[in-house]
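HUMAN: Mind sharing a backbone?

ASSISTANT:
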Amino acid sequence: MEFNKLIPELSVSDINQSLEFYTKVLGFKIEYQREEEKFAFLSYNKSQLMIEESNGKWETGKLEYPFGRGVNFQIETNEIDHLVESLKKNRHPIKIMPEENWYRKGNELVGNKEFLVTDPDGYLLRFAQDLGRRAVK
């Protein structure tokens, strides 16, 4: 396994609840874990994420729900519809239902079909499916 150059590590309130959400609902794979430390290294396609139950070591302040205020993690996928169905089936609320968005990059627009969901601790996840590129009008 090759490690990405930037891998977020999220402090979570309950490692088992987070593992259930990330693996069973969203389809992340556990690459490895240290159960004694309540830590897991997860992957989804080429995205990588670490989660560890809050232990006071990494916090810079009091953790209060929703965790990760002001940040969202974009995760590339080709399975938007499948993810949405899994979230609905598991009765997990979706913050923003899938929508098509186009973002200017130089002289072209980059398109994504994307939706927003929060994990059990309130971290904001943005799943994005590539829609291609087109010229700016």
The longest strand covers residues 124-135. Helices lie at 15-25, 80-89. The chain has one domain: 9-55+70-135. The radius of gyration is 16 Å.
